[in-house]
Amino acid sequence: MIRLILALFALMMPLKAMAAVDIQVVTSPGGITAWLVEERSIPFVAMDIRFNGGANEDAPEKRGATYLMMGLLEEGAGERNNQEYAEAAEALATVIEFDANSDTVSVSLQFLTENRDASVNLLRDALLDPTFDPVAVERVREQVLAGLAADARDPEEIAGKTLAGLAFPGHPYGTPIEGSPETVAALSIDDLRQAHARALTRDRVVVGVTGDISAEELGPLLDHLLGDLPTFDGVPVGRADYRLGGGITVVDFPSPQSVVLFGHEGIAFDDPDYFPAALLNQVLGGGGFASRLMTEVREKRGLTYGIGTYLASNDLAEQFLGQFSSSNDKTAEAIALVREEWARMAAEGMTEAELDTAKTYMTGAYPLRFDGNSRIASILAGMQTLGLSPDYIATRNDRVDAVTLDDIKRVAARLLRSDDLHFVVVGQPNDLESGSF
Amino acid sequence: MRNVLKAACLALTIPAMSPAVADDSVTTFTLDNGLEAIVIEDRRAPVVVHMLWYDVGAADEPLGKSGIAHFLEHLLFKGTDDMEAGEFSRTVEAQGGTDNAFTSQDYTGYFQRVASDRLGLMMKMEADRMRDIILTEDEVATERQVILEERAQRTDSSPNALFGEMRTAAQYLNHPYGIPIIGWRHEMEGLTREDALAFYRTYYAPNNATLIVAGDVTPEEVRALAEEHYGPLEPTIDLPERTRPSEPPQISARHLEMADERVSNPYVLRTYLAPERDAGDQAEAAALTILAEVLGGSSATSLMGRVLEQEESVALYTSAFYDGVQLDDTTFGLLVMPTPGRSLEEAEADIDRMIDSILENGIDAAQLDRIKTQVRAAEIYGRDSLQGRARTYGVAVTSGLTVQDVADWPRALEAVTEDDILAAARRLFDPARSVTGYLSKPAPATSEADQ
């Protein structure tokens, strides 16, 4: 009987009130906006800076330019060569990281309060005045090419690249942001300078800041750091049409297991049905050990170490994706199970109990995300790239709770189409061949 | 830009230096049944991390039963006398929390991250499964398939991981660290319900565990909840002493080569057996920690990165690594991934050249200063991650260290001098005590005309 009591105890306990996340919207004298959460208990600041546009804006024959450019920002800037730049960062214990994605390029900065001005100056040099020293360009190019060679022998990378190419032919989403060995080899320093001028622009920047700094201190800092960047004068890339039908694509790869990546079209974050879709994903394959797919494929049959699904809602296209690995002799059975579960959810939706559990998880997990300066800074930047307002945090859980079983049933029928699922299988699976269902 | 090689070096991930903080937010207590507890207060968010660490890992397994510690970790998510199979994780999830577990050579740990007012519920469930799991033959058989799939995914599908198993087996001739945590496949296939339960009954007990709670709690609250939930549990009276066979003196260098068609960027990896951090005696480990930074910490400023990657362009990637937090002797490692066209023999010669260079030329004082600055900053940055702090203590106390040793560690690093580093390097880098592995692509097939 203790089990039942435990469960009731769990359900009846109201969740503790959400921690106040007090967001200040700071606009600098020069007109740059940042979201700030002041947190004075630890003497450091975390900043997350993202520029919309990203690697999508590479021309097809220059694919990889944005990625290589971002990798070179720390390789010498202003008066410093690459070694001097790294030494300066180490001497300040300042952590600067550059990253490129399809929709954005991003910069994260972490500095001790006592080294604020020097840290900002150091990053400013990299953003405004990177050297693109020919020796560094060749060295980093070799590293990118080595990374591409590794990806070409990595079943997960092969699966991702194959599915993207089939889903979005002719669009940047259809090719890796790192480029191909041919395009990377052909990139010139001039290409990198153009990518730099295009990707890092002051009118497409969003900033999240958390830590030991006030709004008054942050304003002038923003102008100094970002105010002299150019504005964007290009043409934004258009939406990506999803062009893949249901079926199986097998890519031969010598391994005892097959890596399986699968999916079909998804749903936009700003779609009114997004939250029902998120709950559907949670119950189907988004959760931890308790999702339907984990239960059927792992817990009941031991066909995989793990299986998960997610809503990949990007700026220019949406997919509903999932992934697992399974021994070659079990892959076909696992794929059949995924299709069955997909169809069952589309036809029947879920139970009231499943919906309640998924809601409790999603609403309960949300406040737990706001833990740590770096995590909060990243959330603040992410919310802005999605076009959300600061009060979203206070209303988000209400939107989850408002979803009804009817909503679930309607959206399941709209979103989940087992015949449209396409499975990319990288390995040597038994009894599976490429083709339609 | 080092992350481009992340995929190639996944199995070689090096833990960052993250010394714990010596501050008054950390307190300890012990229950009458022997359960040790560490509380780390951090009131910034209404979140708590609850962890239970057992002083048992893969290196404590019976001979021939490799993988049983990790298999048991999986089976702890099945039922107990009070909970159905899977109910633990479902309950955590219904609270908006996350949970998981991990097994190493020296410890097995379970954790949940939940809203802080759910701490009592987590303790109730974690205490329940410390002594009262119930396993059916069917559950064990299915879960054995899961761990075999896990091995297939993480090890058999990765030449880096397979190579790592072979190197580690060559490094440890006699100590069980030479056996992989997940187990050898042929032994995993034979693991039984009885094997799991025997291991469980011996080692899963309050006098063999440490409770760690980090977050929005007071030590008094934690103590009251721990007394209520963990207090009634019976200790294991005849808990075996934790001694493992030790390594014989190594008097000949070991060399191994592996070729795999999935390899894209060949590399050389050299390891030496090295002393670990010992309670009350961390000076040698501190010197080795700084030595790893000096030799191969940063691509732009470490000796290997600067010379081999930047100045000479002979390496795509270099690294030196040392993790001193282990119960028994650990290893110090050096890796060089040469640029295309260079051989692994040349890459190995580059490693030797770098070792000779540091022994002959010493260490740049400015570089040492910068590393010390980063050590100090790591104390401040490290306070940002609740889970990271809890883990630092958990790994330490299950590896024979005390809370005081964790508090002393930043000062031990701070005290390291150039002479300390060079003396430690001279003791370490004995050619007869090296283990060197080459991972490469198979040679191109001979054409028919040649046959």
UniProtKB/TrEMBL annotation, chain A:
Domain Peptidase M16 C-terminal: 187-360
Leader sequence segment: 1-19
InterPro entries in the cross-refs: Metalloenz_LuxS/M16, MPP/UQCRC_Complex, Pept_M16_N, Peptidase_M16_C
Record bears the keyword Hydrolase: yes
GO terms under biological process: proteolysis
Residue intervals of the Peptidase M16 N-terminal domain: 41-178
Coiled-coil annotated spans: none
Keywords tagged on the record: Hydrolase, Protease, Signal
Domain of life, source organism: Bacteria
GO terms assigned for molecular function: metal ion binding; peptidase activity
Listed name of the protein: Zinc protease
Gene source species: Jannaschia pohangensis
TrEMBL record, chain B:
UniProt KW Lyase keyword: no
Gene3D superfamilies: Metalloenzyme, LuxS/M16 peptidase-like
Signal peptide: 1-22
Residue ranges of domain Peptidase M16 N-terminal in the record: 41-182
Cofactor(s), by name: Zn(2+)
BP terms from Gene Ontology: proteolysis
Keyword terms of this UniProt record: Hydrolase, Metalloprotease, Protease, Signal
Family: Belongs to the peptidase M16 family.
This protein's name: Zinc protease
Organism the protein comes from: Jannaschia pohangensis
